[in-house]
Amino acid sequence: MSPDRSPDVPEAARRELAPGGRLRAGMNLGNALFTGKDPASGELRGVSVDLMRELAARLAVPLELVLFATPGEVADAADSGTWDVAVLAIEEARAKKIAFSPAMTEIEATYAVHEDSPLRSAAQADAAGVRIAAPAKAGYELYLTRTLRNATLVRTEGAAAAIELFNRRGADALAGLKPVLLESLGKLAGARLLEGRFTAVNHGLGTPRTRSAAAEYLAEFVRDINASGFVARSIERHAVKGLSAVK
Predict the structure, then answer these.
(1) Which residues share a beta bridge with 154?
(2) In angstroms, rounded to a whole number, what is the distance separating the alpha carbons of residues 88 and 205?
(3) Within 10 A of 84 (CB to CB), how many other CB atoms are there?
(4) What's the whole-number average pLDDT of the chain?
(5) Is residue 154 a contact partner of residue 131, using CB atoms and an 8 Å limit?
(6) Domain that holds residue 27
């Protein structure tokens, strides 16, 4: 038994997390900080895979990875019965049908702008006349939907479409997770990042809100792995830049 593994699991939690005898993990392929594919084997790997394997091991059930292209698709499927647990950004809008654990990680979110933009800091972007591109239903897009007061939010179907909109100057700023934006600078025509951030995105484990025993166990599980350093070790093992473990 690994030092991170708890000796027992309430039977009600096991039933709710693995109703078919296996843990179905909703995997978002749109966030490379958590999930990627091994270039040689094509198998999924990353922090989210480590988390799901550890959870399945503690539950003593097989693990099934259910793939989704975007986090929005994962969240939308919360009441479809297709997944039992998922790593998602903790967001107020999603919490209506998803019960979230405490935060496991933190990622800064900021903007890319065109080189000739007068904007210098993230705080300046919420201004009249500024058009901000963001993938629909991403955690930071949901945050901006709630908090922007003056700028116009332009939602796109996926990150690639947001980049394309920004590159053809259909938007003045591109919202995103800072490490992802840094990696994407090569795809952005004459762009730079603004100083500061507009929020920090926290990710946790989510389960359909109707599963109260599962939610209670996931909260305990996350508190345990945070305290043990499991997430921090996984981040270091996969050499993920820009993703910080919550202690």
Answers:
(1) 133
(2) 6
(3) 24
(4) 94
(5) yes
(6) 11-105+202-245
